Amino acid sequence: MFKSAEMPQTLSKEDFKQLEPDLRTDLLKAQLQLIEEKKFSVLLVIAGMDGAGKNEAISRLHEWMDPRHLACNAYGEPTEEERLRPPFWRFWRDLPEKGEVSIVVGSWYQLPMRRHATCKCSKSEYELELVRINEFEEMLFNENVLILKFWFDLPLDEQKKRMKALAKKSRRVRHILEEWTRFMGDETARETVEEAAMRTSTAEAPWYVIPALDEEYRDIALGQIINSALRYRLERPEPESIAAPAIVAGTSHRSALDAIDLSAKLGRDEYEKELEHWQQELATLTDKKKFRDTALVAAFEGNDAAGKGGSIRRATRALDPRIYKVHPIAAPSDEEKARPYLWRFWRRIPRKGRIAIFDRSWYGRVLVERIEGYCTEADWMRAYNEINEFERQLVEDDIVVAKFWLAISEEEQLARFKAREETAYKQFKITDEDWRNRLKWGAYAVAAGDMIDRTSTSAAPWTLVSAEDKRHARVTVLKTLCKQLKKAL
Fold it and tell me: What's the total number of domains in the chain?
C-alpha cells in the first residue's frame, strides 16, 4: 500500500504559491458553511512516520482554516485519570460537536499498533482490536461525524536523515510526539501499519497515504482532500426522521416482559429485615480494597411510576456519598444533541472505585426516541449492537454493569399517577408527558420487549423486576447489585 507513496512526489514553490490562495479560500468557505449549518462534525486523524512533518502540516491547517473552530487533541500514554477508565473513554470525551473540526494525533490506533509492532500482543488480538476500531468509526459516521485518516509516509533513508537532524536540535525534539513509528525500521512494524490500513480503510472512514518527502506537496494534498470531503458531505441531503410504525390493534407481541410475575410481594417485617441485610452487604462490598480496581454502572429503566427513584434511594443509603453519583437522564441538551448519542453517557463513566447510577439511560434511543420518532428506524435498529458494544467495553475494563427493568401493570400505573396528583409533595413527579406516554403503553411494551431480547447479554444481563410491590422491587435491586459485585470481586 505504501510503495507508491515512497515514489518522489514534489511540488515547486511557484506551483505551491499558485495553488495555495484558492485552496485556502475554498477550505475556509467550506468550514464556515459547516459552522453555520452544523450538519456534522469532523475528525482528522493525523498519523505517520516521525520526521514526516505532521506538526508542520497541522500548523498549516491552523493557518488556512478558522482556528477558533479547529481543535487539536494529542494522545500519548494514558494519564492516571484515563487509565482508570476504558481505553476509548478519552476519545469519546473529546469528540467535537457538530460544526467543529478536531485534529487527532496519537489516536485509537497508536497503542494497538505499538503493542503489535513490539510483539506485546498476538496477531489475533491485534485483528480483534482493528475490528473494534472499525465498529467505533462506523458508529461515529452514522452519528454524523466525518472521519478522514491521513498517513504521512517517507522513504526510510529519508526518515533516518531527518531524525538525525532533529536529534541535534534538542529543544525541538522535546516537542515531537514520539509515536510508535520509531520502530518503523523493523519489518514487523511496517506490516503492522499496512494491515491496519487495509483492514480499517472503509467507506465510512478512509485512510489517505500522503507522500511527505516534499512539504509543499504534502500540505496541498492534505488540504485538497479535506476540502473535497467537506464539500461532498455538505452537499449530501440529510435523512428524514421516521416515526416507528404503530402497533396494529388485535395483534400480539410476546417478549420476556410477559414472563414477569407481578404478584410477587414482600411483607413489611420481612422487608425491613431484608432491606437492612442487603444494604449492609452492599456497604461492605463497596468498602473492600478490591473494589478500587473495579467500578459499578447501574442503569434503571421501566414503566413510568414503577419506583426507579425509590429503588435508587434505598441503594444509595448504603453507599459512601463520596464514591457514587446519580445521573437523572432527561431530554438531551443542545450540547449533547450536537454529538453522537452515546457521548453523554461515555463522559459519565466512573473511574475505578466509583459508582455511576443512571435514572433512565442510553436505552432511550431504542425506547422514547424510537416511539416518538426522534431518530430514524435505521438509527434505533443499529443502536442495539452499538449499545452491546458499549457495555462490552465497560465489562472488559472490569466495570460491573447492572441493568434493571422495573415493571408494573397498566392498572397500577394509573393508581400511582392519581396518587401523585393528590399528594402535594409528589405532584412534581407527574407531568402531562407522563399521561401522553401512557396512551402509548402498547408501543412502549413492544419496544421494551425488543430491547430486553436484543441487549440482555452474558456480560451485561437485564434483571427484570416485579415492581407492583415496591418493597419487593427495592430488595430485588439491592440483592442483584450485591450478587453482581460479589461475582466481580
Answer: 2
